[in-house]
């Protein structure tokens, strides 16, 4: 497939409400979109890097820079989806930037062949269970109102963001109000240390599905130690950047569940490898989220339809984050999202809506 050029497009999307995690509060999503153009078709990719390097070392201006200076110029004249990974391999890190580029090429390529991303990846489901990530709030009543709203909308699993000072009490309050039947889990975004083990063990009585990334990103050994001190299963997010990391974490006993985010691991092909490694070891996976627009959401829903995705993901409906998405919105039906069946990622931005939120465009001729 010949690539004529690539557009880098920056958009600014206001969030429906501030989203607070242990690393900060976001009110707006500054997203980098890539549009790969070929003589016959085009393809879209969304870069999940945040404006600031708070979730990981990547941030959106750096992603745009490495794409225009190194990654895009390294693409071969004839590129299929597998060729992109090989061409980008010499460049260290920058997985979110690489993922966006590989996804845009993959989308264009699949549109050319008429195959859906879900079918290409090996999806076996036509809909996926929708979970929701609930931010840290100023008070317990405010949290309970938010959770009640999501349960009313049909979400089948609730994830509470936690940090020191906002952990046992919010979990207890949600259990007391909504009962033990609600599938519930927590995400610390690396906010604790191993010295907090006995405190984290206080979560054991609440029957949580898992605790996500309690300790630092680079601390697999300490996660393995923590796993022996608490009953709640440990799930890793930030720590897992590749299939090799997943294999290491599993053999160390650092986790029994993995959150797969294609952006964090360098793309959907690496995400599928992690799925395969985990499945072979009986480790459950689920699809994480990075407040994607409909572009990134569509591709995540396709991935979440693979057979190893046995836990509900952070694949929420569009309106969890955005009043107006740039694609036709993803909506819950009976607590599920429908897997797109059209060629490629199966959705496209609506031009007028895209233009309204665009802050910058840059065209790179290949
Ligand atoms: C997580 N996501 O699982 C992430 C973290 C996260 C849905 O909980 C802007 C962009 C703000 C990306 C806040 C969810 C974000 C972000 C949190 C990602 O750890
Ligand atoms: Mg997480």
Total count of domains: 2
Computed CA radius of gyration, to the nearest angstrom: 20 Å
Mean pLDDT: 98
Strand order of the largest sheet: 5-6-7-8-9-10-11
Strand content: 15-25%
Provide an overview of this structure.
- The chain is of the alpha/beta class.
- The chain has two domains: 5-113 and 350-365, Enolase-like, domain 1 (2-Layer Sandwich); 119-338, Alpha-Beta Barrel (TIM Barrel).
- 34% of the residues lie in helices and 21% in strands.
- It has a seven-stranded parallel β-sheet. The protein has a four-stranded antiparallel β-sheet with strand order 3-2-1-13.
- Magnesium ion binds next to loops.
Summarize the structure.
The chain is α/β, with parallel strands linked by helices. It is built from 13 helices and 13 strands.
Features:
single chain; 366 residues; alpha/beta; Enolase-like, domain 1; seven-stranded parallel beta sheet; four-stranded antiparallel beta sheet; 13 strands; globular; binds N-acetyl naphthylalanine; binds magnesium ion
């Amino acid at each position: 497939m010949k690539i004529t050029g690539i557009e880098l497009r920056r958009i600014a999307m206001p969030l429906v409400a501030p989203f607070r995690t242990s690393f900060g509060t976001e009110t707006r999503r500054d997203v980098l979109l890539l549009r790969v153009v070929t003589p016959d078709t085009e393809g879209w990719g969304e870069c999940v890097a945040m404006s600031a390097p708070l979730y990981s070392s990547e941030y959106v201006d750096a992603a745009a820079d490495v794409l225009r200076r190194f990654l895009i110029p390294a693409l071969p004249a004839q590129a299929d989806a597998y060729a992109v990974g090989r061409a980008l391999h010499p460049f260290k890190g920058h997985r979110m930037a690489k993922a966006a580029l590989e996804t845009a090429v993959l989308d264009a390529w699949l549109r050319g062949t008429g195959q859906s991303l879900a079918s290409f990846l090996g999806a076996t489901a036509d809909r996926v269970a929708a979970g929701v990530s609930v931010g840290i709030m100023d008070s317990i009543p405010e949290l309970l109102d938010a959770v009640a709203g999501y349960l009313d909308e049909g979400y089948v699993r609730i994830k509470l963001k936690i940090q020191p000072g906002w952990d046992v009490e919010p979990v207890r309050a949600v259990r007391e109000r909504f009962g033990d039947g609600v599938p519930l889990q927590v995400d610390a975004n690396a906010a604790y240390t191993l010295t907090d083990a006995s405190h984290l063990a206080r979560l054991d009585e609440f029957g949580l599905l898992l605790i996500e990334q309690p300790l630092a990103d680079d601390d697999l050994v300490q996660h393995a130690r923590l796993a022996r001190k608490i009953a709640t299963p440990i799930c890793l997010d930030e720590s897992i950047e590749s299939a090799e990391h997943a294999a290491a974490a599993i053999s160390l006993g650092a986790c029994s569940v993995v959150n797969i985010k294609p952006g964090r691991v360098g793309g959907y092909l690496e995400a599928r490898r992690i799925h395969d490694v985990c499945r072979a070891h009986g480790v459950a996976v689920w699809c994480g989220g990075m407040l994607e627009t409909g572009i990134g959401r569509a591709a995540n829903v396709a991935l979440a339809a693979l057979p190893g995705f046995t836990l509900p993901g952070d694949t929420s409906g569009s309106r969890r984050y955005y009043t107006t998405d740039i694609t036709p919105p993803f909506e819950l039906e009976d607590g599920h999202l429908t897997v797109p069946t059209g060629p490629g990622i199966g959705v496209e931005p609506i031009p007028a809506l895209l233009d309204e939120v665009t802050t910058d465009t840059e065209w790179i001729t290949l």
